[in-house]
Amino acid sequence: MVSLSEVRAHNASLKSLPAGLVAVFVGGTSGIGLFTARELVRNTTSPTIYLIGRNATEASKIIEELRTINTSSQVSFIQKDVSLLKNVDEACREIKTKEKQVNLLFMTCGYLTLKGRDETAEGLDRKFALHYYTRMRFTNGEEDAGGGEGEGGLAAYGGGVWEDLR
Ligand SMILES: NC(=O)c1ccc[n+]([C@@H]2O[C@H](COP(=O)([O-])OP(=O)(O)OC[C@H]3O[C@@H](n4cnc5c(N)ncnc54)[C@H](OP(=O)(O)O)[C@@H]3O)[C@@H](O)[C@H]2O)c1
């Protein structure tokens, strides 16, 4: 396992990345997404951050906190239930109208449940949609907006299970 000091040293090294990185956190209102967004904001220069989720109350608090951590950061919230793919498309369109490129797409949307199939209005199982279809749709939707030094993506599926999308 990577030590905490190694993680902190790596985070500090992000200062050498170009200013103005654009990062999209699908599931940025809590947990792994929020903690990663916070450290990215702390350790980069003039980042632009999009947090995507449903909880607007939580998002407002987070935006205030991240702006205090780094006054050069631009943080905004896109409120969407991304278990619906039409909402994923809307979020991608919104980001594309504002940004020429996305450097980091970080996807942790999802939840743990032992409940059986729970169908969305689009006929997909909600949990499976969030863990698979939503993430593939975001990956495709932001694909033509990717680019440059520091680009990459990560999807977290469960404890210790993740995929590097570079
Ligand atoms: N942390 C662990 O140890 C662990 C262990 C096993 C599995 N996992 C899985 O790993 C992933 C990330 O874990 P985490 O601990 O960061 O989870 P978390 O704290 O519950 O965060 C999940 C994020 O996904 C968003 N989200 C959930 N449903 C959504 C929807 N329908 N539309 C839009 N956003 C939605 C939530 O935002 P809103 O509430 O604002 O919608 C939240 O920001 C999850 O899929 C979780 O099940 C984590």
Automatic annotation (TrEMBL):
InterPro entries: NAD(P)-bd_dom_sf, SDR_fam, Sec_Metab_Biosynth_Oxidored. It holds the Pfam family adh_short. This is Uncharacterized protein. The keyword Oxidoreductase applies. It comes from the Eukaryota. The chain crosses the membrane at residues 20-37. The keyword Membrane applies. GO terms for molecular function: oxidoreductase activity. Keywords: Membrane, Oxidoreductase, Transmembrane, Transmembrane helix. It comes from Neocucurbitaria cava.
